[in-house]
Amino acid sequence: MNANLLLRIAIAIILLTHSVFGMFNNGINDFGNLFLNQIGFAPYGVFLAWSIKLSHVVAAILLLANKYIKLAGFVTIFILIMGIVLVHFQEGWFVVCGGRNGAEYNFLLIIVLLVIMYPNGIIKKQKSNS
Fold it and tell me: Where are the transmembrane segments (predicted)?
């Protein structure tokens, strides 16, 4: 079994549930119209919201298939960072208890994606020739 299979499954489930339910309860359109358009992305808020959520679905499928992991990770990390900047930063760090809607959850997802993308570490040690 691949060492990070469980992490890939967990992130895929999170990305899918965060996306698919919004496709059926008007959540994506609301996010586009009621948030993104209001903070300066009009008239592209709905398009942008759908692009974000569809990228999550594609990333989840790629993670489950263990294909194009770095591409899926980079795109998702960019979206998560923008989520921190545009949505979560103003709410603080904590998702619950010490606050509401904070950045800690996105931070954890970013770190897990980095571990999946670079299972042997980001910086590779050079071999000694001595």
Answer: 5-24, 44-64, 71-90, 105-123
